[in-house]
Amino acid sequence: MLSKIAGTLVALLASSLTVHGFRSTGSNPTLNADAVVPDREHSIFSPYVDSTLQNKFWDYGGDAIVDTNRYVILTQERRNESGWLWSRLPIEMSDFEITTEFTIKGQSTATGGDGFAMWLTKERMQGGPIFGNRDRWNGLGIIFDTYPNSPHRGFFPQISAVKNNGQMSYDLGKDGEYQDMANCHMQLRRTPTDTRLRFTYVKDVYMELALQTQEWNKWTSCFRISPYDFTEPPYLGFSASTGDITDLHAIGSVWTNKLVYHSRTPADLENERLRAFAEDSGSGWWNKKPKDESRKQESATVFQMLKQLVLFFVWVVKWIVILAALGAAGYFGLKYYQKNKGPSTYKNRRMMA
Q1: Residue 283 is assigned to a structural domain of this protein
Q2: Which of 195, 209, 104 is nearest to 162 (CA)?
Q3: CA 322 to CA 138: how far, in whole Å?
């Protein structure tokens, strides 16, 4: 009897691990890891906090608030807000994958304000001017910039990977132009499905950022490049800020997994690197995208731009009509007033005489 109960418990435990593994890793079937192990210490999901409004593994602060049913709100749709969410423990794993569901939304149809970032850095919980985090950070920042502070050749939003050794000041006025390791452009607001990011880090092989923006569980690669070399285990954090133009920035969930590789020789690593970049077309491996996905993304972007132009044109025409109507009403009202005023004055003069 006891053996049957034990067997049942083991089966249930295995089933539970399989379900959680599928939920958090099933979106990336291209991984060649020998095992994928969920990492509780760097994952967070609803209800986010316990009865004391704290989380054992995470801190939040600044203007961030917790909506226990939906997400951790880094900034509300208000001017000049900044908030953050940081892990309490550094990531000790050499190979890992982070999948995050996030939300950016606001009333503005043309542009967002200002954006958010995911951080893998030596320091934590230090607010500042760079999307709610300090300048001159030590580590890697993945920046989701929704507001262009200066003219650019590409459209916005812009997603970029920026490394820093604590010495470089991020050029916020030029949106970090020429300071990034890699970048891409994707629509992050008003998307037809929930937005998610997936950051995969395989030490000595590659790191990749992919996003879900157009269809559930359909991922578009933003960049795949040689991995940043962390000098020490980084903390995981998210931060956001608003300016005169505002957006709500929120984190819905964070799933972190440890990628396990057994007995990799230098030759194995070289073969993995060759496989990781085997599909380079020579047109820019740091910003490589599958052709079909790239075309779909470009079509969606063109549609969004045309939609915004049409809405702007309708808005202009509406105000032209309103101003024309007010001008016509004022003109004919003045004419009517002048026409009726003349005879009345002449009649009064005759009576006085």
Answers
A1: yes
A2: 209
A3: 55
**In this structure, are 220 and 280 located in the same domain?**
yes
pTM of the model: 0.73
- Identify whether 9 is part of a domain: no
**Sequence letter at residue 266:** P
248-260 and 235-241 beta bridge pairing: unpaired
Q: Give the count of alpha carbons within 13 A of 230, CB side only.
A: 24
Torsions phi, psi of 224, nearest 5? -135, 115
Q: State whether 282 and 350 are in the same domain.
A: no
**Are residues 35 and 79 located together in one domain of the fold?**
yes
- Domain range spanning residue 312? 293-353
How many domains are contained in the chain? 2
Q: Does residue 165 sit in the same domain as residue 248? A: yes
Same structural domain, 306 and 267: no
Q: Please report, in tens digits, the pLDDT of each residue of the chain (353 residues total).
A: 444 444 444 344 333 433 333 333 456 777 888 899 999 999 999 999 988 889 999 999 999 999 988 999 999 999 999 999 999 999 999 999 999 999 999 988 878 889 999 999 999 999 999 999 999 999 999 999 999 888 776 678 999 999 999 999 999 999 998 999 999 999 999 999 999 999 999 999 999 999 999 999 999 999 999 999 999 999 999 999 999 999 999 999 999 999 999 888 888 888 888 888 886 543 333 344 444 444 444 555 555 666 667 777 777 888 898 888 888 888 888 877 777 765 544 444 444 44
Are residue 285 and residue 306 in the same domain, yes or no?
no
